[in-house]
Amino acid sequence: xxxxxxxxxxxxxxxxxxxxxxxxxxxxxxxxxxxxxxxxxxxxxxxxxxxxxxxxxxxxxxxxxxxxxxxxxxxxxxxxxxxxxxxxxxxxxxxxxxxxxxxxxxxxxxxxxxxxxxxxxxxxxxxxxxxxxxxxxxxxxxxxxxxxxxxxxxxxxxxxxxxxxxxxxxxxxxxxxxxxxxxxxxxxxxxxxxxxxxxxxxxxxxxxxxxxxxxxxxxxxxxxxxxxxxxxxxxxxxxxxxxxxxxxxxxxxxxxxxxxxxxxxxxxxxxxxxxxxxxxxxxxxxxxxxxxxxxxxxxxxxxxxxxxxxxxxxxxxxxxxxxxxxxxxxxxxxxxxxxxxxxxxxxxxxxxxxxxxxxxxxxxxxxxxxxxxxxxxxxxxxxxxxxxxxxxxxxxxxxxxxxxxxxxxxxxxxxxxxxxxxxxxxxxxxxxxxxxxxxxxxxxxxxxxxxxxxxxxxxxxxxxxxxxxxxxxxxxxxxxxxxxxxxxxxxxxxxxxxxxxxxxxxxxxxxxxxxxxxxxxxxxxxxxxxxxxxxxxxxxxxxxxxxxxxxxxxxxxxxxxxxxxxxxxxxxxxxxxxxxxxxxxxxxxxxxxxxxxxxxxxxxxxxxxxxxxxxxxxxxxxxxxxxxxxxxxxxxxxxxxxxxxxxxxxxxxxxxxxxxxxxxxxxxxxxxxxxxxxxxxxxxxxxxxxxxxxxxxxxxxxxxxxxxxxxxxxxxxxxxxxxxxxxxxxxxxxxxxxxxxxxxxxxxxxxxxxxxxxxxxxxxxxxxxxxxxxxxxxxxxxxxxxxxxxxxxxxxxxxxxxxxxxxxxxxxxxxxxxxxxxxxxxxxxxxxxxxxxxxxxxxxxxxxxxxxxxxxxxxxxxxxxxxxxxxxxxxxxxxxxxxxxxxxxxxxxxxxxxxxxxxxxxxxxx
Length: 910
Prior knowledge:
Residues 820-839, 887-910 are annotated as: Disordered. By secondary structure, the chain is an alpha+beta fold.
C-alpha cells in the first residue's frame, strides 16, 4: 500500500494561507494521491513560480548545518531552557534521529532518562513524528528540525519536550517580519500537536506549551533561539488538521484520467496577490482568462468582492458605475483599453534633480546581505553623469558590504559638497533613488549591520584601553573589527536616517521610483503586478506609445530573465550562483574566486545593465510629468529633516542609532512627530492627487472631505454629500471636475517657518437655503471660482487645515522634525567635551556614549550579572553583529552544490 502523502509538515500548515479556497482544500494530497506540484504538472499547468533558487536552497542547508554545530546546538538548547524558566542544564547532549520515526522514539526515551536521572538537556536533530491523527497509517511524517528535552523545574521525575525548527529568515532593518515568524511557529505547532498525540512519547514526558525557532542573528547566519507560546498556533493547527481528516474520510484517491475534471469542478477563491504561492495558480488564472463570463475579469484582477458590483458595469457593457474608488475604476478601464490611466497628479518626487544618486544592485540569494554587484549614477546641476558599475566576486563577505557603503558614501559626499557650493547656509537635501522598496531594504539592512559592528568596536576599544579583554555579550572572546572609514560612515549614517524615516511618510531620503511613478499612472492587469517597476513602466509608456495587451505583458514580465529591483529571478539566481561557485585553479591549489571563464562578472553586468535601463526609462517618464506646486514643499520638508541629520553626522552624535534600537524616551517622543507627519501627508495628498481626493471624499470614515455638486452659479449653491459638513462650516475647494485647485496659476505659495501658506484658494462659509433639500447650501468664498451648474467639486472642512479666521489664505502646518537626541544648531565639535552635563542629551558623540556603556557592561560582568554566569541567560536586546572569535560562519560556496527537491516550493522552505 502506498504511503498517504500529507505533503510534509510544512505544506500542511501552509494550507492555512489558502484554506478559504475550496479548490485548495479539495486537492489535498490525501485526496488526489500526489503532491500539488505533481498535480499541476499532470493537468498540464506545471508550476515554476514557487521554485527554490539553488543559492537560496544552499543557504538554507548551510544554516541548518550551523544549527547542528556543537557550539550552536548547545547555545540553542541552553537559551531555550533558560527562556522557559527551567533549571540550568547539568550537561548538554546532542544526537541525530536521521528523520527516522523508530530512532526518534529511542532517542526520546534516552533523553527522558537522562533528564530525570542527571538533569541533562538533550537536543535531537532530524526528528520524525507521525502526523497527528495518522499514526496507525502509512503516511509521510512531520519532521521538525530539532526537539529539546529538558527536566521539569521541580525534578519530580518528568521532562519537557520542546519542538523547534530552523529557519534562515532574512533580517530586514534588524528584524524579521512578523508574518514569517508566524508561519514558522505554525510549523513548530504542528510538530507539537503530532508529538502530543504520539503513543511512543515516553511516560512522564510532556509537550511544552512553548516552541522555539532557530533564526539567524547576524549576516553570518549564526543561529539564535526565539521562544514563543504556541497556544494560539496550536489552536489553528488543530482546526486545519481537522479539515485534513475530513478530506481523508473521502473516497480513495482520484484516478489519473479524472484529475482535470475533478479539479475543474472545485470552485477556486482566486486572489492574484496571495495565490502565487499555490502551485495551481497558473491553472486557476488560465480558467479565469478563458472564461466567457466578463465579470470574471474582475476576479482575475483581484478586485475585492464588495467593490465588484460598483465597477461591473465597466466590463459587462452597461457602463453603470457605482461608488467605487477612483483608483479601482481606473485599473479596470486601463485593462479594458490597454492604456495606462493618468491619476492627474503633478510631480512631487525629487528623482532626477541635482543632489540625487541613482542606485541599482543585484542581491545574492546565497547570503542574507550578499550583493553580486552595484551600479550608481550621480545627478548634478549639469544632468546625469555616467553610471559606475562594480561587480563583487565575494558577495557573502563583510568586505563586500563595506565596499557597497564606501561607493555610496563617496557619491553622497560629492552630492553634499555640490549642495553646499550652491547654498552654503541652507544646502538642499540629498537622495538615493532606487527602483523599488526591496532595493532600499537591502541597503538599509547592510547599514544596520555595519552600524552594529561599529558600535561594538567602540565598546571593545574602550575595553582594550582600560586593560579589559574584549568580550561579546555572551562572554566569549571578541575580535575588534576595523573602524568605518569616512565614506562608509556617511552612507551608513544616511541609510540609518532612511531607517528612522520609514515611520514618517513625508520623509524621502530614499526615493522609490516605482512608488513615484505609481502616483501618476494606474496600470491595467492585477494591481499586484504593478509592484514591478518594468511592468508599471510599460503601462506608463503606453500612454504615449499606444496600447498594450494586458495579459501578454503580464506573462512577458513574469517570464523575463532580469528584474528591475535587487531581487533576482530564480533562473538568473541559479546562473549566477553556478558561475560564482565555479572555482579558478591557482598555483597552490583550488581557490574560491570565480574564474573569468565562468562569466560571473559578465552575467552580473548584464543584470545591472537591465536595471540601469529601466531606471533611465522611468526617469524619462517622470520628466514628462509637469511639476506640482507642492514639489518644493516636499523638498523643504526633507531639507528640514536632513539639516538635523547633517548635525548628527558632523558631530558623530546618534547618527548610528537604528530605529529598532532607539530608547523608550526617544520612541515615545516620536509619537507626536508621527501624528503631525501623517496629518500633513493626508492634507498634501488631498491637495495634489485627484484620485486620493476622490477616494477620501467617498470614504465613509473620512469626516473632513466630501463631494459637492454645483446647482446654481449665481448665487453659488452646492449640494454637499456629507452629514458632517453643513451650515456654518467653512470649506475650501480642493478639486473642480478634473483639476486640482492648488495647481491653478492664480494660487500662490509662501514657505513660512511653521507652515506653507497658499493664497488664491476658494474659502468661505456655508449657509442653509431652507426648503426640502437639507444638504443644499449657499457658499460665499472670498475668492469666487468660475463654476457652472453640474460641476463636481471635492471640498474639505477648512478647520481640518487651519484655525485662521480669514478666508484669504490656506495654511498647512509643517510637520515636526525628529530632533530628539540630536545636536542643536548651536552645538560645536567641542561642545560636549567642554560641558558634558549640558550637552549629554544632544551632541554627546558615539565614542563617549559607547565608552560609558562599555564601563557599565564591565561592572555588570564583574558582579556576575551577565552571560555566561547568570541564569537564565540575559537577552541581548542590542543584537551585536560581530561573530565571536573562532566561531563557525556560513560559507554557502564551501561545499558541493545540491539542488532542492523537485516537489518543494518556497512556501515549503519558509
